[in-house]
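retry 2 of 3: previous attempt timed out while embedding molybdenum atom. Reduced batch size to 1 and resubmitted. Inputs unchanged:
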Amino acid sequence: MTFIRRNRSWQLPDNQVTDENIYRQRRSVLKAMGFIGAGSLLSSHQANALGWFSDDPEPFQQRELVFSPAEKSTDTLTPEQVATGHNNFYEFGTGKGDPKDNAQGFKVNPWELVVDGMVDKPLRLDYDQLYKISALEERIYRLRCVEAWSMVIPWIGVPLSALLKQASPTSAAKYVAFETLYDPEQMPGQSNRFIGGGIKYPYVEGLRIDEAMHDLTFLSVGAYGKTLPPQNGAPIRLVVPWKYGFKSIKSVVRIRLTDRQPPTTWNILAPQEYGFYANVNPMVDHPRWSQARERRLSGSGLFNQDRIDTQLFNGYREVASLYRDIDLTRYY
Ligand SMILES: Nc1nc2c(c(=O)[nH]1)N[C@H]1C(S)=C(S)[C@@H](COP(=O)(O)O)O[C@H]1N2
Ligand SMILES: [Mo]
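retry 2 succeeded.
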């Protein structure tokens, strides 16, 4: 597959975040949040502790910079060989190197992605159509795994909303359910529980419809300027950058609109540990470890890991208004 244009004006030109980017993103965040909304979500004490309101609240003019990936110099792009060699994709094994080792023969063409359920126009996309949902964009997003490591990855794809709109969800649709391919012949973890970690397959995930329609919610068909490698979820996977990585379901074959909160794989396996929402939140610890900090895989080797503070919503404050009415400790 040939490719896919890189870089837009609002993206980082290279690995390093400039002061100018930092300044403009701060302002975009202030605008996107609205001061009132932020205040109702967190106490002003909490908000100040997180450094939310330290900037000059000038009117914001450059909306596109809400997707600017980074506001700290710790946000260096993760090297491609790290992002494609350290993976969670239990269908191919539970070790971090297993997906790369075991998924290389994975067949992605032909593929079929179905969008159905509570929609006026059900869709069936074949492999070629996956790349033509709408204009492809590159978005550099942080990915924070619930295991407390993180990366910064340049995805290529389209907003999920572009696809959902084409299917015309009915007004009854309140949630979106996602499903990974079930093919035990190709995915050894699906037929052998020692390889697949005891998960019930197919892997399933879900979002509330307002989360699914949010501009940040992305369907990725590529990364690092290429089509997705199998270990990262080829040919098409979800990327929800403000939620723990397990929400970002790989190798998706079905997207179903529904009026019920759909079951999700990690919640089924361990409901006390993994919720439906799974918003990145340094103030809500996993029962077995702290979520206050994370290991950022940014260097050229897996041992090059900076320990940094975890940010609420992984730093994507644009989404805070989605949760203004819920208790993030209860709905973890
Ligand atoms: N189908 C499926 N999707 C999955 C997983 C999985 O095991 N199976 N692992 C999740 C987890 S825990 C993480 S952290 C991310 C990792 O994405 P990456 O390997 O592209 O970094 O994929 C998510 N999507
Ligand atoms: Mo994860």
